[in-house]
Amino acid sequence: MSALNIIITQKADNDEIAIYKYISEEFGEVYAKKFRSKLINLFHTLSTQPFIGRPAKNDHSLRVFIISRQNKIVYKIKNEGIIVIRILNTKADLSKNF
Fold first, then answer.
1. How far, in Å, CA of 59 to CA of 63, rounded?
2. Whole-number Å distance between alpha carbons of 33 and 97
3. Full-model pTM
4. Distance separating alpha carbons of residues 12 and 30, to the nearest angstrom
């Protein structure tokens, strides 16, 4: 299977910026950069292994992958690639964040 394109929605981009800012302010720039690096590596993995995330409970067209104890990404696999919809706290209710 060839690698799929990763498409990041504006909401997911805003989520990443907010998380990066929070980590940077609370724990330091080094940890914020580690988070961003981990996210980029995950996107590379998703592009070749799109089914590693589990189907979302309430919407099986969405998939969820846990990045860390605190964060998860929500994405959809489409013909044109993988659409990253949100980057959320692991405790966030998916139905209230779309």
1. 8
2. 25
3. 0.88
4. 22
Instruction: Output the six-digit token pair for 38.
Output: 């981990």
Homologous superfamily of 6-92 = RelE-like (3.30.2310.20)
The one-letter amino acid at 76: K
Domain segments of the chain as ranges: 6-92
- CA dist list (Å): 70 to 1, 2, 12, 56, 75: 31, 31, 15, 17, 17
d(CA 61, CA 73): 14
1 band by pLDDT with thresholds 50, 70 and 90: low
**93 Cβ neighbours under 8 A, 6+ residues apart:** none
